[in-house]
Amino acid sequence: DTLLIYGTAKPYDALIITDKRVVLIGPGISPQGANKLTAKLSSLTIQNSLANGSPDYSEFHGLELTSGFFVMGSVVTQHLIFNSCYIKSTCVMNAGTNWNYIGYQFTNNYFSNATISFNSTAVNTTSVDSFLFFNNVVRLINGNFFKQFYQGTERIIQHNLFYAPSFRVPIFESGTCRHFTLKDNIFSQNSLF
User: Cα(191)–Cα(193) distance, rounded to whole angstroms?
Assistant: First the structure.
């Protein structure tokens, strides 16, 4: 299913998607035209259970996530795409033991004091493969933007801008992030942003 979400002054309530592939399309980070309001979602939760259907290959375009994005369930969700979203909060993928996340793509997004974390019920058992992070702007305040990426391959972080109030603000959580390829990123300490 494809849903068009219109911009409004008031955020939409929490959205929970269970066992369903969806494409959600909002007006973008900076809408043009008569209605210049963003499509704010207070939170977005994607659940994958053992029932028929799956949220695999879901896409999210042009949304503003104000309070959280969560992936959970009894089965791992694969291949999610986030494009041109304004993400103001934590993105948490709750994993079971020995889960393998594949095909998460974040492109052309703006992250403001957010984190991306793959939580696991057992340390070092979650694998994140084919994680693509391209052309994003990341505003760091507290640091540790990437958390708990223990194992995996093909994790590419390319053509992004990371800026923070200090060089003492880390991007990767110490000891939990490994095997990344970083290409052509800009890291800036500038209070003007």
Answer: 5
Note if the pTM is more than 0.85: yes
> 24-59 pLDDT, tens per residue?
999 998 888 777 899 999 999 999 887 888 999 999
Q: How many whole angstroms from its chain centre is CA 90?
A: 8
Question: Which tens digits make up the pLDDT trace of 136-172?
Answer: 999 988 778 888 777 788 899 999 999 887 767 788 8
DSSP states of 90-135: EEEEEE-TT-EEE--EEES-EEES-EEEEEESSTT--EEESEEEES
CA dist., res. 150 & res. 82, Å (int): 22
The answer to whether the CB of 67 falls within 8 A of the CB of 86 is: no
Residue 176 is classified by DSSP as: T
The per-residue pLDDT for 156 is 92
Closest listed residue to residue 20, CA positions, set 47, 45, 42: 47
The CB-based long-range contact list for 124-127 (8 Å cut-off, 24+ gap) reads 124/150, 124/151, 125/95, 125/97, 125/98, 125/99, 125/150, 125/151, 126/95, 126/98, 126/99, 126/100, 126/101, 126/150, 126/151, 127/99, 127/100, 127/101, 127/151, 127/152
